[in-house]
Design a protein that fits this description.
Layout lengths: L5 E6 L3 H12 L4 E5 L6 H5 L1 H19 L12 H12 L2 H11 L3 E4 L2 E5 L2 E4 L2 E10 L3 E3 L10 E2 L1 H5 L7 E5 L3 H12 L3 E5 L11 H13 L3 E3 L4 E6 L4 E5 L2 E5 L1 E4 L3 E3 L6 H4 L3 E2 L2 E2 L12 E3 L12 H16 L13 E3 L4 E6 L2 H6 L5 E6 L4 H5 L6 E6 L5 E8 L2 H13 L4 H5 L8 H6 L4
Parallel strand pairs: 1-2, 1-6, 2-3, 6-19, 8-15, 9-10, 9-15, 10-11
Antiparallel strand pairs: 4-5, 5-6, 7-16, 12-13, 13-14, 17-18, 20-21, 21-24, 22-23, 23-24
The protein binds flavin-adenine dinucleotide (FAD) and nicotinamide-adenine-dinucleotide.
């Protein structure tokens, strides 16, 4: 191994890298991390952290609204202040991460990396060699290739808006489209969502998605179905989006039509590393078609959701594999996910579509949580849960729509992942009253 500069060299510094690279370095491995942009990648800089910081006032606004005047406040969001607060909260994260990595002995190499052979990456004319390479280059926003595409903005631009435009048009019906629609609407913008077909958030329970969309419509968000954009033109004081369903006039356009794996320009094809439309193809050990080159995080072609906790799990799996304390293929646990709308929709484990398709295996119990006295404390009016049990009465899946859905799903996750039996469920004594106590009540 000593002929190489490093034991492991990572391309990219996001969660798919640092959650595993750090402990690996602490265990004495020689690690290099190459980063072309900000340390930490999408999640802390242009994703989860930025988004959830901007969303905090929305949660508060909704709670004030539900309290029906118990607390006197307008709930109006001061967008420039919200933006400034978000910036304060996230701006030191890259430095903090870089300091931790350097303190653990990791070499940070800045610049755009490209593989030149199975052990070598070139950055700005210099080459670095390692026994193992990990490609963790993430994804970038897809931008529609239409006339006037220069007027389209991506989620990074949206999360950095200094001033909230009066009118926003959002293209797409995925996580980013719905979260941004919620945020912009709550901040006072007039929001139109252009849908490719007729449904949004296809990975979630359609009945719960309909409830959330109905609430957004009530708040003034306009959804236009089958409105594929064909062109954008500039008028005197605004923009016009020409769609299959007519012309939409707007001040600002967010293109949230998906994200694409960063596989181009890395020299992958030259090395015979297989890729497809979804990313880099790997085996169950996250190994590419070149045995000493691995891939991790969003850049992977995979069946599990492309989320931060998935990237973290993969980077830690590789850490254990490289350190020799893991020999088995990767085995993903139940992965919890939410869309940060208001109310949220969160889910984990077996999903509703699978449960409905297999009634002999799964039993779905639906509860309207408005009847739950604890939810009445915070006047939760859109609050429903679907619990999925197997034939042994073990909880195998949950999906909830409510303001507190994230905490409910997180608190039920151990029961799902470890297959708690009814007897074990009875032994769980949560703090009372609390959301976890409410989530676990009547499960056994
Ligand atoms: C707006 C938004 C909101 C999101 N919200 C959530 C959320 O709430 N919860 C959640 O779980 N997930 C969320 N996600 C998804 C989450 O951000 C990703 O799943 C996660 O960041 C993936 O980590 P990664 O390390 O695989 O990729 P990234 O974090 O994208 O890191 C890849 C890194 O590689 C670098 N890189 C790329 N090419 C090269 C090269 N050639 N040389 C050197 N460096 C290179 C990039 O600059 C980048 O820093 C969100 C994503 C977006 C866009
Ligand atoms: N809360 C979270 O965990 C969170 C939040 C944001 C993003 N993310 C992650 O980031 C990734 C990207 O999110 P996203 O919302 O960009 O993607 P997405 O795949 O969730 O949604 C893309 C949307 O664009 C639409 N679309 C696709 N092609 C189109 C076209 N040509 N014209 C018009 N519309 C088109 C799709 O129908 C879909 O509704 C996802 O993998 C997601 O896991 C997660």
């Amino acid at each position: 191994m000593t002929e190489f500069d490093y034991d492991v060299l990572y391309l990219g510094s996001g969660h798919a890298t640092f959650d595993g690279a750090l402990p690996l370095a602490e265990r004495g491995f020689r690690i290099g991390v190459i980063e072309a942009d900000r340390i930490g990648g999408t999640c802390p800089n242009w994703g989860c952290n930025a988004k959830v910081a901007l969303d905090e006032p929305v949660t508060l606004q909704r709670e004030l609204e539900r309290m029906h005047g118990t607390v006197a406040a307008s709930g109006q969001i001061d967008w420039p202040k919200n933006q400034a607060h978000k910036q304060t909260v996230i701006e030191d994260i890259p430095t903090g991460l870089a300091d931790s990595m350097e303190a653990a002995g990791i070499d940070l190499i800045f610049g755009k990396g490209r593989l030149v052979d199975a052990h070598t990456i070139e950055v700005a004319g210099r080459t670095y060699q390692a026994d193992k390479l990990v490609i963790a280059t993430g994804m970038h926003p897809h931008i529609l290739d239409i006339p006037g595409k220069e007027y389209l903005h991506d989620s990074t631009d949206f999360l950095a808006l200094k001033k909230m435009p009066k009118q926003i048009t959002i293209i797409g019906g995925g996580y980013i489209a719905l979260e941004s629609a919620t945020l912009a609407n709550a901040a006072g913008s007039d929001v139109t969502v252009l849908l490719h077909h007729d449904r949004v958030l296809r990975a979630f329970d359609p009945a719960f998605v309909d409830l959330m969309v109905a609430d957004l419509k009530k708040r003034g968000v306009r959804f236009i179905k089958s409105a594929q954009p064909k062109a954008v033109t500039a008028a005197a004081s605004n923009l016009q989006v020409h769609t299959a369903a007519g012309i939409v006039t707007t001040d600002w356009i967010l293109d949230a039509s998906g994200r694409i794996a960063n596989t181009k320009g890395l020299g992958l094809a030259e090395l015979g590393i297989e890729t497809n439309e979804d990313g880099i193809v790997v085996n169950d050990y996250l190994q590419t078609t070149v045995p000493n080159i691995y891939a991790s995080g969003d850049v992977l072609s995979k069946d599990v959701p492309k989320l931060t906790p998935t990237a973290m799990f993969e980077s830690r799996y590789l850490m254990h594999l490289f350190a020799g304390d893991e020999k088995a293929p990767i085995r993903y646990p139940a992965i919890a996910t939410t869309v940060f709308t208001s109310p949220r929709i969160a889910q984990a484990g077996v999903d509703i579509a699978t449960a409905q398709a297999n009634p002999a295996i799964y039993r779905i119990v639906e509860r309207d949580l408005k009847q739950n006295w604890y939810r009445q404390v915070s006047y939760e009016d859109i609050a429903k849960v679907k619990l999925i049990f197997n034939q042994q009465n073990q909880l195998v899946g949950v999906t909830e729509i409510s303001e507190q859905a994230v905490d409910v799903v997180n608190s039920l996750l151990p029961a799902i992942e470890f297959g708690f039996t009814p007897d074990q469920l009875e032994r769980i004594i949560n703090i009372f009253p609390s959301i976890s106590a409410s989530a676990y009540s009547k499960l056994a």
